[in-house]
UniProtKB/TrEMBL annotation:
Substrate binds at residues 96, 106, 134, 219. It comes from Planomicrobium stackebrandtii. This is 3-isopropylmalate dehydrogenase. The gene is leuB. Homodimer. NAD(+) binds at residues 76-89, 277-289. Catalyzes the oxidation of 3-carboxy-2-hydroxy-4-methylpentanoate (3-isopropylmalate) to 3-carboxy-4-methyl-2-oxopentanoate. The product decarboxylates to 4-methyl-2 oxopentanoate. Pathway: Amino-acid biosynthesis; L-leucine biosynthesis; L-leucine from 3-methyl-2-oxobutanoate: step 3/4. NCBIfam families: leuB (TIGR00169).
Length: 355
């Protein structure tokens, strides 16, 4: 298979973790006979410094000419006092909007070698295996009008039937590849948008008779994520609820450095990035945990290219290295051997070559 991948390293540890993911992709290409053309381009603070624009046109052009995007992270104190249009995060918001990447997918799965770093009881944490599907390009963060006066402020929550249908379909499709259960999270007891959301889920489920569906109010879902996260398979929800619940879910498996994500649209095109940020406190020190970026590359192979065997091989290699006791500083603990980012990647590549 021949594919072109846009690589947008970004800021802080972004370049270190994307380099790591690229090494793993190159190893996969060699081993399975694929050709991945990797095209680097600037985003975030680095792009502001070079081009006065957090998402320059040449970066959009590179992404347009690619089959998928791999992104590191953006942001850092250097740009914190910039005006809104010159802030690194603007690059990320703009790229999602520009490519209409409406479905944010975050798998949250227990890592057997790391159960001791979960805040939950080991017997609860060890069975966590869910995917949160969050609507990413509409809802309260984008609704108009949005305005401020001295005495009041307005945000607007709008969803169209079509926007709900496409994200709900995406969740049903993902559930089909998993345990076949969808939990739709809303606030239908008070919000009109949530009532429409629920109606659409009820309509769409008719096309997926094999999938079990449950509705849950967001407050109760927030509790259940802590008390019984094993009950979830695929969770589908609107933008703001998904933002909050996915961050809540991200801590239950123990490390931010382990969690990948995808932002995709229906034709398979997508942007893949670790959940964590640019970690300025450890940037440039060869200390960052590259697992989330590497697992994001695995998600790309699976969701955008349909390369399920290759994706599974990457996941297995990362878990294998952790099981052998190797880890980066963020996962240090008893019986663990802390290694640099480079060394960790070398171990993952060796593990891949051994399979
Ligand atoms: P962060 O995720 O960058 O870091 C939080 C803590 O986790 C830090 O102590 C960091 O060292 C550690 N950490 C994160 N990823 C790690 C990894 N791979 N390996 C080892 N340790 C890791 O979040 P924070 O500090 O709130 O934000 C830092 C910058 O990143 C800010 O400018 C923020 O806006 C930006 N950010 C960017 C995101 C993105 O590009 N998608 C997402 C979240 C934050
Ligand atoms: Mg968030």
């Amino acid at each position: 298979m021949k594919k072109t991948i846009a690589v947008l390293p970004g800021d802080g540890i972004g370049p270190e973790v994307t380099d790591a993911a690229v090494k793993v992709l190159q190893s996969i290409a060699m081993r399975y006979g694929h050709t991945f053309h990797l095209k680097h381009a600037a985003i975030g603070g680095t792009a502001v410094d070079q081009f006065d624009n957090p998402l320059p046109q040449q970066t959009i052009d590179v992404c347009d000419a690619s089959d998928a995007i791999l992104l590191g992270a953006v942001g850092g104190t250097k740009w914190d006092s910039n005006p809104a249009h010159l802030r690194p995060e603007k690059g990320l918001l703009n790229i999602r909007k520009h490519f209409d990447l409406f479905a944010n997918i975050r798998p949250v799965k227990a890592v057997p070698a790391l159960l001791d770093s979960s805040p939950l009881k080991e017997e609860v944490a060890k069975e966590v295996d869910m995917v949160i599907v969050r609507e990413l390009t509409s809802g309260l963060y984008f609704g108009e009008p949005k305005r401020r006066s001295e005495k009041s402020a307005v945000d607007t929550l709008v969803y169209t039937r079509e926007e709900i249908e496409r994200i709900v379909n995406q969740a049903f499709e993902i559930a089909r590849t998993r345990r076949g259960k969808v939990t739709s999270v809303d606030k239908a007891n008070v919000l009109e948008t949530s009532k429409l959301w629920r109606e659409v889920v009820e309509e769409r489920r008719k096309a997926y008779p094999d999938i079990e569906v449950e509705h849950m109010l967001v407050d109760s879902a927030a509790m259940k994520l802590i008390t019984d996260p094993r009950a979830f398979d695929v969770v589908v929800t609107e933008n703001m609820f998904g933002d909050i619940l996915s961050d809540e879910a991200s801590v239950i498996t123990g490390s931010l450095g382990m969690l990948p994500s995808a932002s995709i649209r229906s034709d398979g095109f997508g942007l893949y990035e670790p959940v964590h940020g640019s970690a300025p406190d450890i940037a440039g020190q060869n200390k960052a945990n590259p697992s989330a970026a590497i697992l994001s590359a695995a998600m790309m192979l699976k969701h955008s290219f349909g390369l399920h065997t290759e994706a599974a091989a990457i996941e297995k290699a990362v878990m294998g290295v952790l099981e052998d006791g190797y880890c980066t500083g963020d996962l240090a603990g008893e019986g663990k051997r802390v290694v640099s980012t480079d060394r960790f990647v070398t171990k993952v590549v060796e593990e891949l070559e051994r399979e």
